[in-house]
C-alpha cells in the first residue's frame, strides 16, 4: 500500500503508549493497533483529529504517501 502510518514514531516522540492514547481518545487498543500496523483500510476524520489533538501533531505526521513505481 502506498499510504504508510507513522503512529508508532509519533507515540515514541511523545513518550506515550498505545494504551494511554487509547484511553485519551476513547478508541480501542485493537483499532489503534490496526492503524499502527498499517493494516487499516480507512480512518475517520474524527479519529485522525483526536489522534492529532492528543499527540499535538499534523495529519501528515501520522500518514505518509510513498510512490510505488
Could you give a short description of this structure?
By secondary structure, the chain is mainly α. The protein has five helices and two strands.
Task: Tell me the strand order in the biggest sheet.
Answer: 1-2
Number of strands: 2
Shape summary? globular
Number of helices: 5
| Assembly of the depicted chains | single chain
Question: What letter string, H or E per element, gives the SSE order?
Answer: EHHHHHE
CATH architecture: Orthogonal Bundle
> Structural class, from helix and strand content?
mainly alpha
Terminal Cα separation, in Å?
A: 12 Å
Explain the overall architecture.
- The protein is mainly alpha-helical and 69 residues long.
- It has one domain: 434 Repressor (Amino-terminal Domain) (Orthogonal Bundle).
- Helix content is 57%, strand content 9%.
- The chain contains 5 helices and 2 strands.
- The protein has helices at residues 7-13, 18-25, 29-37, 45-55, 59-62, and strands at residues 3-5, 63-65.
- It is globular.
- The mean pLDDT is 94.
List keywords for this structure.
69 residues, mainly alpha, 434 Repressor (Amino-terminal Domain)
Describe the secondary structure blueprint for this structure.
Layout lengths: L2 E3 L1 H7 L4 H8 L3 H9 L7 H11 L3 H4 E3 L4
Antiparallel strand pairs: 1-2
Amino acid at each position: 500500500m502506498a499510504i504508510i502510518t507513522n503512529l508508532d514514531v509519533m507515540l515514541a516522540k511523545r513518550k506515550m503508549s498505545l494504551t494511554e492514547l487509547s484511553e485519551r481518545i476513547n478508541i480501542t487498543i485493537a483499532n489503534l493497533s490496526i492503524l499502527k500496523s498499517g493494516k487499516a483500510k480507512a480512518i475517520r476524520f474524527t479519529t485522525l483529529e483526536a489522534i492529532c489533538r492528543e499527540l499535538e501533531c499534523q495529519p501528515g505526521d501520522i500518514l505518509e504517501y510513498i510512490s510505488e513505481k
